[in-house]
Write a structure and sequence with these properties.
single chain, 744 residues, mainly alpha, two-stranded antiparallel ribbon, 32 helices, globular
């Protein structure tokens, strides 16, 4: 044996030695040592035949994906009988088809080939199919990544060289990979890698993507960047721009409502994000209002932005105190809800300015604990009482407590000691308080306040707020309060109208139906429906209260199954339409009411009766769409279609036919996005491609798709990158419904 083996047992078999005796250092004639281990003589491996090689190749995993698969099959068929060889080849290929890596690799090559091809009309169907398959593959990859990701494994990427982590930069540029990284960061908050990725995504301006998928309160730097960018977008949209220069978005500008929804949810998610957002908004509004600016279009545009910021602040306060039942109130225990209300009220000016009211001319005095204070004037004490009463009103309303006589007296105490104008000014500065007073007057059923004296005082408080609002608008427009039109005791008129409106709503609840007309007057006191129509047309606060009452009545569990439902519903929707005609700012509330009716179902009613109610509801949608509510209407309908079970095919064809009758070019990109997403829902595709859809309507639909193409092509010239998704959407619509140019 070789000396290099040292003191090893010469009879042991090592992993380094083969079972063959070839290559041994022993002479051929020297006898071999005996061993308890049997020696194995090397046998030369017989060379495989081509058929055997082909069979072994076909037995490999995923052999069907290999380039030489057909060659191996042919070889097997030549060597064996056709039936035997074919059967064996099929069995081998089927048994070995299980490797996911090769399948994903081939799929990736196919998708890359389809994606790199041009976007001509002939290839648009292939691209649409490729996007569908890509989405399926993306979901598989996302699921695996979410299951397998670990903090240690992810953070180890940060120790790699800059060249090795260059793939992260490519992921940041893809909206699909960004979504995965954002979702992972929501579940792995302590990962340094994902924190780094989130900051990089934020710096690239994709704040809206982050806001839609995670709670940014855990990442204050990201939240601060998002708030600054989105407030800029809101301001630009208010002025009339598209807002895209303020923040990049793959979705484009789809209207201010879609931006505000995520912004409000994020800002009100925690106490400190709410405090920070309110302080930023207050600072923005204060700087603009205190700055001297020359008259001109720039100043007018900036003031419109300020009004949007101010309205956003009010909505944040209301959302903090009254979270929506779908995502907030139902999940909060009473203690957590009370804490949110306390935070919102302590941050508000109602509480803070009480601490700032000091009389510098009064003598200082020392309290019992040694601290020094300054006495407040009697006027300041009255205002403190009013502010405290408004705080109590908001807190009680948030917790579901009705207004009582003591609280109503505290709210009106300033009027007893001096001018009542200050009450209206405080109320219009806190719209949530006015809403609370309206609900005390108009809430249906057991929620209505039954105390007549309290209802009269609530009506008077609302009247003071309305007068203060009218006064401030006229002063702002003319600069002189004395120029405002004087009415005979307007406060008393408004108070009586509110009381009468509340009384009629209570009376109508017990009726089967009521008459609604636009030709009603103050002389129609004998008919509750006609007189309520007059009050709604004449007095805005009554109209708001009636819509609030109708929405809550229709949302009740028992309304849709009541005996009065088939006759009372048409009257309520007709009244809502009259309100939306005379009071434009009530249209979002009317849309909410219409969505409530659309969701109703009653198995006890006949199919024709329910169809008639739903058709009237859809006509109300069409009316709102022609009055500036197109984007909210179509977004809401698209969401209902995705949920399914609300609108059947016949109703959908009725609604789409009405849309095609009232829509014409030119169309905006946000309109293309919203309506296009509705047209791509499965319910729409099935309903509009059926033989029951009128042929003339199909022509109008294809012409509308042609208008979409023109709008997208024009937008693509200005911003090709932003229009990529729009081009894909229109290509998808064209493959579904066709496209046709309108006759000139």
């Amino acid at each position: 044996y070789d000396d290099s083996r040292g003191e090893e047992d010469p009879y042991a078999i090592s992993a380094d030695t083969t079972t063959s005796t070839a290559g041994s250092t022993m002479d051929e004639g020297e006898p071999r040592p005996t061993s308890p281990v049997a020696t194995v003589e090397e046998e030369a491996e017989p060379e495989l035949s081509p058929a055997e090689k082909a069979e072994l190749a076909l037995n490999e995993p995923d052999a069907i994906l290999e380039p030489g698969c057909l060659t191996n099959v042919n070889e097997l068929l030549k060597a064996l009988d056709g039936n035997v060889g074919g059967q064996k080849a099929i069995q081998s290929l089927v048994a070995g088809y299980h490797g996911q890596t090769a399948i994903c690799g081939l799929l990736g090559l196919w998708l890359a080939e389809l994606k790199s091809s041009s976007t001509s009309k002939k290839q648009s169907n292939f691209i649409s199919a490729a996007d569908t398959v890509r989405t399926i593959a993306e979901n598989v990859v996302n699921t695996i990544a979410k299951e397998k990701f670990t903090k240690a494994g992810g953070d180890s990427i940060l120790s790699l060289s800059k060249a090795e982590v260059a793939f992260l930069e490519e992921m940041f540029e893809s909206n699909r990979w960004r979504k995965l990284l954002i979702d992972l960061s929501a579940t792995h908050k302590d990962s340094a890698l994902l924190m780094y990725c989130l900051q990089k995504i934020s710096k690239r301006g994709h704040h809206r993507e982050i806001a839609k998928r995670i709670n940014q309160s855990d990442y204050f730097g990201v939240f601060n960047s998002m708030l600054a960018a989105e407030l800029t977008v809101v301001g630009k949209l208010a002025v009339g721009g598209n807002g895209e220069s303020g923040a990049k978005s793959d979705d484009g500008s789809t209207g201010i409502d879609s931006i505000l929804a995520d912004l409000k949810r994020t800002c009100s998610s925690t106490s400190y994000t709410y405090l920070y957002a309110i302080e930023v908004l207050n600072d923005l509004v204060h700087k603009v209002k205190t700055k001297k600016m020359p008259d001109g279009p720039k100043t007018a545009g900036l003031l419109r932005a300020v009004r949007k910021w101010d309205r956003l602040r009010e909505e944040l306060e209301d959302l903090m105190m009254n979270p929506p039942a779908a995502g907030g109130a139902s999940k909060l225990n009473p203690l957590a809800r009370k804490r949110r209300v306390d935070v919102a009220l302590n941050v508000s000016d109602l509480y803070q300015r009480q601490r700032r009211r000091l009389d510098p001319t009064s003598d200082a005095y020392t309290s019992g604990d040694g601290s020094r204070f300054r006495r407040k004037s009697p006027n300041d004490l009255l205002r403190d009482t009013l502010d405290t009463a408004v705080v109590s009103l908001l807190k009680n309303h948030s917790l579901g407590i009705q207004v009582d006589k003591q609280l109503a007296d505290d709210l009106l105490k300033v009027a007893y000691g001096g001018s009542s104008d200050i009450i209206g000014d405080v109320l219009i500065a806190n719209p949530s308080a006015i809403k609370a007073l309206l609900e005390n007057l108009f809430r249906p059923g057991s929620k209505r306040n039954r105390n007549l004296e309290v209802k009269q005082k609530c009506a008077r408080l609302i009247a003071l707020a309305v007068l203060a609002s009218e006064r401030s608008v006229k002063v702002a427009s003319s600069g002189d309060e004395s120029s405002s039109e004087k009415r005979d005791d307007p406060e008393d008129q408004l108070r009586k109208a509110l009381e009468k409106g509340s009384q009629i709503c209570e009376q109508v609840e017990n009726m089967v139906t009521f008459t609604v007309t636009e030709s009603a007057s103050d002389k129609d006191t004998a008919s509750p429906g006609r007189y309520l129509s007059f009050l709604c047309m004449e007095y805005t606060p009554v109209a708001q209260g009636v819509i609030l009452w109708a929405t809550e009545l229709a949302s009740g569990d028992e309304f849709a199954s009541s005996a009065a439902y088939p006759t009372l519903s048409p009257s309520l929707m007709s009244l809502a339409r009259i309100v939306s005609i005379h009071h434009p700012f009530t249209r979002p509330a009317v849309l909410k009411l219409a969505l409530t009716f659309l969701s109703h179902s009653n198995s006890d009613l006949s199919y024709e009766t329910m169809q008639d109610i739903k058709e009237q509801c859809l006509r109300l949608f069409l009316w709102l769409a022609t009055q500036g509510q197109g984007l909210p209407v179509f977004s809401a309908i698209a969401e209902k279609l995705r949920q399914g079970g609300v609108i059947d095919a016949a109703l959908l064809r009725y609604f789409i036919g009405g849309i095609l009758d009232v829509i014409g070019p030119p169309v905006s990109i946000p309109f293309v996005k919203v309506l296009g997403m509705m047209f791509t829902t499965k319910a729409c595709v099935d309903a509009l491609n059926s033989t029951f859809f009128d042929a003339k309507k199909k022509v109008l639909l294809s012409e509308l798709i042609g208008d979409f193409e023109d709008a997208v092509m024009e937008n693509e010239k200005q911003s090709p990158r932003a229009a990529a998704d729009d081009v894909a959407l229109v290509a998808n619509l064209r493959s579904m419904y066709g496209s046709k140019k309108r006759a000139s």
